[in-house]
TrEMBL record, chain A:
Signal peptide: none annotated. Residues 11-209 form the Nucleotidyl transferase domain. GO terms for molecular function: nucleotidyltransferase activity. This is Mannose-1-phosphate guanyltransferase alpha-like. InterPro entries: GMPPB_C (IPR056729), Mannose-1P_guanyltransferase (IPR050486), NTP_transferase_dom (IPR005835), Nucleotide-diphossugar_trans (IPR029044). It comes from the Eukaryota. Belongs to the transferase hexapeptide repeat family. It holds the Pfam family GMPPB_C. Residues 298-415 form the Mannose-1-phosphate guanyltransferase C-terminal domain.
From TrEMBL, chain B:
Residues 2-233 form the Nucleotidyl transferase domain. This is mannose-1-phosphate guanylyltransferase. Keywords: GTP-binding, Nucleotide-binding, Nucleotidyltransferase, Transferase. The lineage of its organism: Eukaryota, Viridiplantae, Streptophyta, Embryophyta, Tracheophyta. Pfam families: GMPPB_C (PF25087), NTP_transferase (PF00483). The gene is LOC113730444. It comes from Coffea arabica (Arabian coffee). It is an enzyme of class 2 (transferase). Pathway: Nucleotide-sugar biosynthesis; GDP-alpha-D-mannose biosynthesis; GDP-alpha-D-mannose from alpha-D-mannose 1-phosphate (GTP route): step 1/1. Belongs to the transferase hexapeptide repeat family. One of its GO terms (biological process) is GDP-mannose biosynthetic process. The keyword ATP-binding does not apply.
Length: 416, 361
């Protein structure tokens, strides 16, 4: 079942970069998305912890476009905490999702791993990595993709794929098709053997050859669809998965657990709730408890950082995450929200379906809420860093950028 | 002589522009806002300017190093660790402002654009012999502001009335002061308002005098007033030094074009337009009542009015941009797009039209 003690595994987590993610505003003004906390831990902590369950894990690499200093503290602290080497590698220029992996192949292959996991940081799921590895070994292919079944109407936002129901071989793959292909989609979690580097290089070489042809005829150059892509820019979906489907090289492993993509602040609230629910099974001691006598009343899944202070007359939950040094006053009601570091919530305030940014202040009897539609633009109320909501003010279905003071109630508004 | 410029905080009203640079560095008429004030101070012999800031000092300090050399004036920062209001910063910078010479010092509000008749203000201050002088300006709707009630003949200030419900006067505080060092003894190092706490005391002692500001005045801290302010500024420039304005068959009214900007054939530019360094305005473009900041490219046949186009943005061919559209830094409006009052945050691409005023994050 387990590989021999020589068979090491390396995991690579793609974390993206600053200019690409305007969808995570306004929270991304203050923190790189991968470090935004879900269920009390930075987003990237969840896949990293999952990687720790892989037998013979030798190293975890985070690859992205952020400056190294933005990840320096996190990487050293999590290496210490989980006792596994984690290193951040900055891509100097875009190479595409597969090209990025190829770009760092020497480092990745340093431990001569037999298998390489590739995960996207903004995926929220149960990361069944050991089971996936086992299945991959049975299939004997170059790569195995984690897949999940979704409602057919939403499938075209993702990569749709068709797999053989008996052998689980990947038969067909297409990225964001216009017409319906399949209700099974690519979860953004893969395991490969080192052969994948040869496959990526193959794409590069092919493109280089075509580029050489181009120098022969500039008219031909205008006709080629990929003329604008540099030769070392290789996309995993279009350049590797699609062409290799049906060639007995790629296989699928289906997960029956939850799966979401964390693209917007609204979705981060949803995914925080999913991880809190998962903690209920995997590590219930992390979750808060309380019955309103010595400590606040807790209902449902709630995480409270040990340094946060919550008044015993407050009622918290379900689906609430409270970060470090937050102060929750008497009679406060919190439902489905993320309260970030150093927030002060004064007496009798109510927060429902919202994210309250670092150092913000919510006044007495004020009300911060939204409808709770994670996909709507204003479906979750977001308060940026250092926002003050004065006493008795109501903020509904709104987004407030950092450093604002609200002394009048607002509804359905973006406040710059 | 010394001066203090109250720069203050986050400039949230000028977002999305202030998401890219601190407010004093946002360009106005092709120059960072604060440079207009620093140049006016240098012109009347101020040798040291203190900037009272509480946000992004590193960015400000870098910028200042460049200008210290070019202008030959000393520029320092006084950084508030907590917001000190409109008077507290003076106490914080006390050692820099009171140099023992007994000379009065200027205090300017960084959001204000005016003709800065500072020489006349010095003479006014000497002639009345009081402790403090303030500039006031006449406005149409005084109850939006703090009104200064003064004796017309001498300018002696009787009292301040914040947002009066009934008419008490039409002169408001223009945010330009000339103060004797003794005023510093009246200010404690804590959050203090100069209009609410300090000036009323000086007025009660009949030591505060107000001079009516000749020429234009505008608080350009928000986009609508920024655009009006540009009109007033260019009007004034037409009277003072018309050679700085652009001229030609393709120019209408007052237009300022940086020497490194390029304008194509068949354009019609103006009135009240500022085009910044390195801009490229392609053929057949119509611009009116707008600011085009450094490095912007306006593609062929586009039409822009009453808008602000942020640094390094592009506006596509045949695009129509109007009605208080504000594009932040590095925003790209695709060809043929219509924007009616879109407020677009930095690093965005606009691929579909914005039919009514909307913030695009």
């Amino acid at each position: 079942m387990m590989g021999s003690s020589e068979e090491k595994v390396v995991a690579v987590i793609m974390v993206g970069g600053p200019t690409k993610g305007t969808r995570f505003r306004p929270l991304s003004f203050n923190i790189p998305k991968p470090l935004f906390p879900l269920a009390g831990q930075p987003m990237v902590h969840h896949p990293i912890s999952a990687c720790k369950r892989i037998p013979n894990l030798a190293q975890i690499y985070l690859i992205g476009f952020y400056e190294e200093r933005e990840f320096a503290l996190f990487v050293s602290s999590i290496s210490n905490e989980l006792k596994v080497p984690v290193r951040y590698l900055k891509e100097e220029k875009p190479h595409g999702s597969a090209g990025g992996l190829y770009n760092f192949r020497d480092l990745i292959m340093e431990d001569s791993p037999s298998h390489i996991f590739l995960l996207n940081c903004d995926v929220c799921c149960s990361f069944p990595l050991p089971d996936m590895l086992e299945a991959h070994r049975r299939y004997g292919g170059m790569g195995t993709i984690l897949v999940i079944k979704v409602p057919p109407e939403s499938a075209n936002q993702f990569g749709e794929l068709v797999a053989d129901p008996v052998t689980n071989e990947l038969l067909h793959y297409t990225e964001k098709p216009e017409t319906f292909v399949s209700d099974h989609i690519n979860c953004g979690v893969y395991v490969f053997t080192p052969d994948v580097f040869a496959a990526i290089q193959g794409v590069s070489t092919q493109r280089k050859d075509r580029a050489n042809l181009r120098r022969v005829s500039s008219f031909e150059a205008l006709q080629l669809p990929n003329r604008s892509l540099p030769t070392d820019f290789v996309r995993l979906d279009q350049d590797i998965l699609s062409p290799l489907a049906g060639k007995k090289q790629l296989y699928t492993y289906e997960t029956m657990d939850f799966w979401e993509q964390i693209k917007t602040p609204g979705m981060s609230l949803r995914c925080s709730a999913l991880y809190l629910a998962q903690f209920r099974f995997t590590s219930p001691h992390i979750l808060a408890t309380g019955d309103g006598i010595k400590s606040a009343t807790i209902t449902g899944d709630v995480y409270i950082h040990p340094s946060a202070k919550v008044h015993p007359t407050a009622k918290i939950g379900p689906n609430v995450s409270i970060s470090a040094n937050a102060r929750i006053g008497a009679g406060v009601r919190l439902v489905n929200c993320i309260i970030l570091d150093d927030v002060e919530i004064k007496e009798n305030a109510v927060v429902i379906h919202a994210i309250v940014g670092w150092k913000s202040m919510i006044g007495r009897w004020s009300r911060v809420q939204a409808e709770g539609d994670y996909n709507a633009k204003l479906g979750v109320t977001i308060l940026g860093e250092s926002v003050s909501v004065e006493d008795e003010v109501v903020v509904i279905n709104s987004i407030v950028l950092p450093n604002k003071t609200l002394n009048l109630s607002v509804q359905e508004e973006i406040i710059l | 002589m010394k001066a203090l410029i109250l720069v203050g905080g986050f400039g949230t009203r000028l977002r999305p522009l202030t998401l890219s640079v601190p407010k004093p560095l946002v360009d106005f008429a092709n120059k960072p806002m604060i440079l207009h004030q620093i140049e006016a101070l240098k012109a009347i012999g101020v040798t040291e300017v203190v900037l009272a800031i509480n946000y992004q000092p590193e960015v400000m300090l870098n910028f200042l190093k460049d200008f210290e050399e070019k202008l030959g004036i000393r520029i320092t920062c006084s950084q508030e660790t907590e917001p000190l209001g409109t008077a507290g910063p003076l106490a914080l910078a006390r050692d820099k402002l009171a140099d023992g010479s007994g000379e009065p010092f200027f205090v300017l509000n960084s959001d204000v654009i005016s003709e800065y008749p500072l020489k006349e203000m010095i003479e006014f201050h000497k002639s009345h012999g009081g402790e403090a002088s303030i500039m006031v300006t006449k406005v149409d709707e005084p109850s939006k502001y703090g009104v200064v009630v003064l004796e017309e003949a001498t300018g002696q200030v009787e009292r301040f009335v914040e947002k009066p419900k009934l008419f008490v006067g039409n002169k408001i505080n223009a945010g330009i002061y000339l103060l004797n060092p003794s005023v510093l003894d009246r200010i404690e190092l804590r959050p203090t308002s100069i209009e609410k706490e300090v000036f009323p005391k000086i007025a009660a002692e009949k030591m505060l005098y107000a001079m009516v500001l000749p020429g234009f005045w505008m608080d350009i801290g928000q986009p609508r007033d920024y655009i009006t302010g540009l009109r007033l500024y260019l009007d004034s420039l037409r009277k003072k030094d018309a050679s700085k304005l652009a001229s030609g068959t393709h120019i209408v009214g007052n237009v300022l074009v940086h020497e490194s900007a390029k304008i194509g054939e068949g354009c019609l530019i103006g009135p009240d337009v500022a085009i910044g360094p390195g801009c490229v305005v392609e053929a057949g473009v119509r611009l009116s009542r707008c600011t085009v900041m450094r490095g912007v490219r306006i593609k062929k046949h586009a039409c822009i009015s009453s808008s602000i186009i942020g640094w390094h943005s592009t506006v596509g061919q045949w695009a129509r941009v109007e009605n208080m559209t504000i594009l932040g830094e590095d925003v790209h409006v695709c060809d043929e797009i219509y924007s009616n009052g879109g407020v677009v945050l930095p690093h965005k691409e606009i691929k579909s039209s914005i039919l009514k005023p909307e913030i695009v994050m």
